[in-house]
Amino acid sequence: MARFLSALWSGADGLRKVLHLVLLLFVFMVFFGAISGSVPPAIPKKAALVIQPYGFLVEQLEGNPLDRALADFAGDGKPQTLVQDIVDALEYAKDDERIELVYFELSNVLGAGLSKLQHVATAIADFKSSGKKVIASADYLSQQAYYLAAHADEVYLHPEGFLLMQGFGRFRNYYKDAIDLLRIDWNVFRVGTHKSYVEPYTRMDMSDEDRESTTRLIDQMWSLYQVDVETARDLDEGTIDAFAQNYLENVAATGGDIAAAARDHGLVDKLLTRTEMRNFLIDHVGENPDEKDAFNATGMYEYLEQMRMLSGGKVKSENIAVIVAVGDILPGLQSPGKIGGDSMAALLREARNDESVKAVVLRVDSGGGSAFASEIIKDEIQAIRDAGKPVVASMGSVAASGGYLISMNADRIFASPSTITGSIGIFGMFPTYQRTLDAVGVATDGVGTTQLADMFRPDRAMSAQAKQLFQLFIEDGYDDFISSVALSREMDKSFVDRIGQGQVWTGLDALNNGLVDELGGLDDAIASAAGLADLAEGEYGIKNIRQKLSATEKLLVDLLGAAARSGLDLKYWTGQPSAVRKIAEQANEKAELLLRFNDPKGVYTHCLCDLDM
């Protein structure tokens, strides 16, 4: 036995040493990969800046930076591209003599809100004012990708590719029958005739009120899309709608050749294979001397790394702070991609206490969430104003419900014409499953000192008194909401109630209704904040205030990023996710929507404002 245990220990100790060696080798690989990839490659004297957006265009990358770096390194990261990275790259390239043209490769754009696309389109137009060309191409063009392509000087599509033009829509799953089959009592409390967030749990179809509101919204968004694209491409009015409405006929006319249909209708200039596209770019910027059949180019991220290093950043002695608020509003501390009541309050306090910050711009891209967390954030914004620093809210694709609540205390509110905002309403949901338990032979019984002792037990039916109390919470919350809007926007409360009731508006509608002050993007909001703070143009910097990493976390993020750029990739070792895992992940995403409902009072101001585009 002693010899057996000794051998077992020796084997375990040997395995430990091997694992330590493997770990040490891995660390050295990452370290040397970081060293070898830490120096950005030189930019040719005559080059194309290649911008190749991947995934969804976002205002803020989702998740903790260290978690993102680990996920990216393992080949499991979320496909996202930061809008501001594209805008900054175009701004740097405009006056850079080495950059001959900008080349957008748009095959991998999965989605973006219209306001984000408009933000990039504005930056493209500014770059083109330098006299330099913008060229766009793709193997496949989604509707969102085509919006960006249309703002280029020339658009090329692969002969075997396609352009999908499907218009705007909004479709949801409805669960009432499933909830009834599971014998769950889904108790819903709301104020607002158009507050449709709860409808999937109480109906099997869209209500007339939601249908009317959604139809008005998508018609305006589709109109904005068409006008922008037709103006950029110099197309006749109605060209885009006619192509989309008669998509089947247009494709059938070319014998099923979608790419040819897009070309014949003037949506793209020419059909080029990848080889033809490379040769086309070589003719413009020259062949890469180190790589045959490649054109002189610099990638967006390498270019940004170099230019940001050389420029020394945008911070000066006097600054406008920019704080980004993206995602659902939730209590407590949250990672980027979600707005935590406590974590966002901490960023706002940092801006208030920073003597170099003279004004604050809050960039909001949120459909709302917890009413309590929204109030925490709103109070911190008021504290900044009370400290004598102006606050300007800049609305992105969505700033509705709780997203509007955290914006309304600002000195000025900017929205893009395509911003989805409003949805001034409030709701609460409390499902109970006592009937489900009863069906499998489980009962709940007990005693309490008051009639409300079991009020928040999901295994007990809600009493009439509990329901009445919950509805009072909701009605009081709505009254507080419209009262605050009336006070901050200097409106009559009854008028706020009329444009409230959960109704959703575009930025254009919101301007006409007095919910926002001006139409414009982030740059307009920054300029307005500077004006309110009496800062002259060129005399102030931009200070991005975001959650900070520890020194160790930052080192790990830098090492992982550099190692990935050097070619070390774990995704070949981990394999691709199975079909079962993909289904489980989708189910988890659906469940997570419900698990996020953790407001202390169970009261929410949220807008399900997503559109299919």
Describe the fold and architecture:
- With 613 residues, this protein is α/β, with parallel strands linked by helices.
- Among the domains are: 218 residues, 2-enoyl-CoA Hydratase, Chain A, domain 1 (Alpha-Beta Complex); 161 residues, 2-enoyl-CoA Hydratase, Chain A, domain 1 (Alpha-Beta Complex).
- The protein is 46% helix and 19% strand.
- The chain has 23 helices and 23 strands.
- The strands form 6 sheets. Strands 11, 14, 16, 17, 18, 20, 21 and 22 form an 8-stranded mixed beta sheet that branches. The protein has a 6-stranded parallel beta sheet with strand order 9-7-6-4-1-10, with helices on both faces.
- Helix 5 links the parallel strand 6 and strand 7.
- Helix 13 runs parallel beside helix 14.
- It is globular, with a radius of gyration of 27 Å.
- The termini are far apart.
- About 1% of the residues have low confidence.
